[in-house]
Amino acid sequence: MSERRTALVTGGSRGIGAAITRALAKRGLNVACTYRNSREEAERICADYPDQAVALSFDLGNAESATQLVESVLATWGRLDTVVLNAGMWRGGRIDSLDPTEWWRVLEANVGGNAQLIRAVLPALRKGENASVTFVSSVVGLQGFPGDTAYASAKSALFGFARSLAKEVGKDGIRANVVAPGFVETDMTADIPDVSREHIAKRAVLRRFGTTEEIAAATAFLAEDATYCTGTVLTVDGGWSL
Ligand SMILES: NC(=O)c1ccc[n+]([C@@H]2O[C@H](COP(=O)([O-])OP(=O)(O)OC[C@H]3O[C@@H](n4cnc5c(N)ncnc54)[C@H](OP(=O)(O)O)[C@@H]3O)[C@@H](O)[C@H]2O)c1
């Protein structure tokens, strides 16, 4: 079994998850960084932390891939201490235009997919110390956003999920918390038109989008340092939701 604490970061191949992978690896943890399509990107990130980071395949829509993922982490390092549920999908569209199948797909991936993974990781986390689960939600789940009923419903569900999970597994020494980022410059927000981008940025008290590193620092704090925090939502949004 590895002497290093071991982290699993879903959606670590790009954007916020890539920054979280780097932040945890820099702290000296082993990190399993998952990708769905962006294998090369994930492998490039892991190559910067040889012997410490591995890229593994994971699909939120596939229950088997959750089991296989945990088996691979345990086969590599023999332990799992902290899990960051960062992978997420966004589909925009107002309630009367977004296809109902697509609407449910957003819920299934962002909520159901994470539930499958939680079931798979709990036995390993129960053996750890200062074990934690950190969900990456969104201020859109707190505040709502036009065109985001599906995404906001899913991200909002994660607050209740984490609080209930915290109550279920606290006795096992496992913490469950949520990071709620504001708008961050990643591929997910790349298609926002300039005029909306300006409007969104101005609504934040700090008058800008966040960086992936800023979200990663807050996530690493909840995952590793905040040993007496559980059921907490940490908003990291430059004051967007004030
Ligand atoms: N960007 C923002 O402004 C913002 C704000 C608040 C919250 N968030 C949340 O932060 C998280 C990361 O967002 P991001 O902006 O970094 O997104 P991103 O740049 O689009 O990256 C998404 C990541 O999730 C993975 N992924 C997507 N669908 C998946 C699926 N069905 N199964 C497994 N993995 C999947 C992708 O993997 P592949 O590329 O390998 O397919 C990628 O690594 C998401 O949960 C998002 O909702 C983002």
Task: Describe the SSE topology.
Blueprint: E1 6-9, H1 15-26, E2 30-35, H2 39-47, E3 53-57, H3 63-77, E4 82-85, H4 100-126, E5 131-136, H5 139-143, H6 149-169, E6 174-181, H7 194-203, H8 212-225, E7 233-236
Parallel strand pairs: 1-2, 1-4, 2-3, 4-5, 5-6, 6-7
Helix pairs in contact: 1-8, 3-4, 4-6
NADP nicotinamide-adenine-dinucleotide phosphate (NAP) binds next to helix 1.
Compounds present? NADP nicotinamide-adenine-dinucleotide phosphate
CATH topology: Rossmann fold
Strand order of the largest sheet: 3-2-1-4-5-6-7
Head-to-tail CA distance between termini: 45 Å
Count of the separate structural domains: 1
What are the low-pLDDT stretches, counting only 5+ consecutive residues below 50?
none
Q: Count of DSSP E strands?
A: 7
- Given helix and strand content, the structural type is alpha/beta
Mean pLDDT: 97
CATH architecture annotation: 3-Layer(aba) Sandwich
Largest sheet: 7 strands, parallel
For the record, the CATH class is: Alpha Beta
Number of helices: 8
What order do the SSEs take from the amino end to the carboxyl end, as H and E?
EHEHEHEHEHHEHHE
| CATH level-4 homologous superfamily | NAD(P)-binding Rossmann-like Domain
Based on CA atoms alone, the radius of gyration comes out at 17 Å
The shape, in one word, is globular
Q: What fraction of residues sit in β-strands?
A: 15-25%
User: How much helix, percentage-wise, in residues?
Assistant: 40-55%
